[in-house]
Amino acid sequence: MDQAKYDQMETMLHKLEDIKNSQESIIDKINHVITDLFQNPDKDLEKAMEDAHQKASDNVEKIAEATEEYQMKMNKLEQA
């Protein structure tokens, strides 16, 4: 594999990791809101935050899977 292609793929991996980190940050912020709701309960907001938490968690999982698959693809190309 030529260096330019490798560099592009490496950049893509960094972007995927950044997306995953952003989603994890969102989960952390949602958890703060959920914790705050113990002090000031609001069932509608709690439900919305639980749903948002689940979607963000699903996104982290999907991005992690995509990153792993992309890394394997990159490794195969590198060995060829």
From TrEMBL:
Q: Does Coiled coil appear among the keywords? A: yes
UniProt keyword terms in alphabetical order: Coiled coil
Tell whether Coiled coil is among the UniProt keywords.
Answer: yes
Q: Coiled-coil region(s) at which residues?
A: 49-80
Spell out the protein name for this chain.
Answer: Uncharacterized protein
Protein's organism: Leeuwenhoekiella palythoae
